[in-house]
Amino acid sequence: MKTPIWKKKTRTKIMVSILGLIAATAALWWGIFALKPYQISPDQMQARYRYSAPAAFTPTLKDLGRHGYEVRFNSFDGAAVNGRLQYPSDPAQAKAPFPLLIAMHGLGRSHMRWWQSSYKGGETLEHTHLVTEQALKQGYAVLALDARRHGERKNLEYSVLDLMRDMDLWGQREPYEQMIIDSIKDYRLLLDWLLPQPQIDARRVQTTGYSMGGQMALILGSLEPRITAVAAIVPPHLDDKVAAVSPQRFFAGLAGKDKLWLLSADDDEYASAQQNQALFEALPGTANRHLRFPGGHLLPASYAEQLQPWLAPMP
Predict the structure, then answer these.
(1) Which helix H or strand E contains 189, and what residues bound it?
(2) Quick check: 213 pLDDT over 90?
(3) How far apart (Å, rounded) are the C-alpha atoms in residues 103 and 216?
(4) Under DSSP, is residue 16 helix (H, G, I), strand (E, B) or coil?
(5) Cα–Cα distance between 272 and 172 in angstroms, integer?
(6) What confidence category does residue 67 fall into, taking pLDDT thresholds of 50, 70 and 90?
């Protein structure tokens, strides 16, 4: 038996109504919650990254052996900060101060990824410990801190996953931006204390980072004239929806660096090959280099060895 025409029309009307309701709901969500680009002035940007040192600021250093030290201090806002400073040899016996490498970890990771070859029984996927090994071999002291909401600084009641979900679903970008900004301030505050120390060569301060750390390295390098070179490893593509922490807002401050390197993946889930190429072409300066790798966001371990020329002193 054939379905009556009136039933077919009724079904069609129902389907059209459902699709219309879905479209209206999506439009309403986009209008209310979806992240939208915004503008931020240079003065507003400077204000967001401004910080004041606490009175009598002195980090505590716990000797871990083998010229490594656990670093702890209370930051500009009283927040507890932890990390590690590793020397290539005994600084008390060094004939010259050490250049400094600032290393920044990725989203959901911790500063320990720069020292550990394995995590919870498995090989670490970013292989950032190999970058540390290269730096130490070339005579660098290496510094890495836990970013806000990461490592020892996790907020179990409101995790990084919660933060990213709320930004994607409800347009709440402020917690994400503040996490990045305050983490940058933590580093700048520590540098104020560390660079005048006699064991550190303040003329050779370089920064690198993986993923979110690559994003942060570009920002820190731009804000800090004391940093001489930047290597951003697979930074995510970010636009003016999060303007206060988007690397494209910081190009001007990167002018004059000795070396600006970008390491990218051609099939990165967080930045397309075209977006990475555009980022590289927008970087100021002439001593820039773009290393491209096949595959996704997790680079082959060999990338660490290819950073050796970036770590070498300028001729």
Answers:
(1) helix 174-194
(2) yes
(3) 10
(4) helix
(5) 25
(6) very high
Q: Please write the tens of the pLDDT for every residue from 141-153.
A: 999 999 999 999 9
Q: Check if the beta carbon of residue 209 is closer than 8 Å to that of residue 245.
A: no
pTM attached to this predicted model: 0.90
Q: Which residues of 209-243 are buried (b: 16+ CB within 10 A; e: fewer)?
A: bbbbbbbbbbbbbbbbeebbbbbbbbbbbbeeebb
d(CA 149, CA 101): 23
290: its two tokens:
């773009």
Instruction: Summarize pLDDT for 4-13 with one digit per residue, the tens.
Output: 665 556 666 6
Identify the CA nearest to 212 among candidates 58, 70, 104, 99: 104
Contact predicate 104/210, CB 8 Å = yes
Q: Which two tokens stand for residue 13?
A: 């009307």
Beta-strand ranges (E) seen in the chain are: 60-65, 68-74, 80-86, 98-104, 118-119, 122-123, 141-145, 200-210, 229-233, 259-265, 288-293
Q: How far, CA to CA in Å, does 212 sit from each of 144, 219, 239?
A: 14, 11, 14
Lookup: tokens for 211: 């993923």
* Torsion angle of C-alpha atoms 257, 263, 268, 274, degrees rounded to 10: 60
- 221-230 pLDDT per residue, tens: 999 999 999 9
Q: Which 8-state DSSP code applies to residue 41?
A: -
> Tokens representing 196?
């005048």
Rounded to the nearest 5 percent, the helix, strand and coil shares of the chain are 40, 20, 40
- Give residues with Cβ within 8 angstroms of 221, minimum separation 6: 207, 227, 229, 230, 250, 253, 254, 257, 260
pLDDT value of residue 169? 87
Could you tell me the two tokens for 49? Answer: 């990254």
Name the residue among 237, 271, 260 with its Cα closest to residue 310: 260
User: Would you put residue 149 in left (φ > 0), alpha (ψ -120 to 50) or beta?
Assistant: left
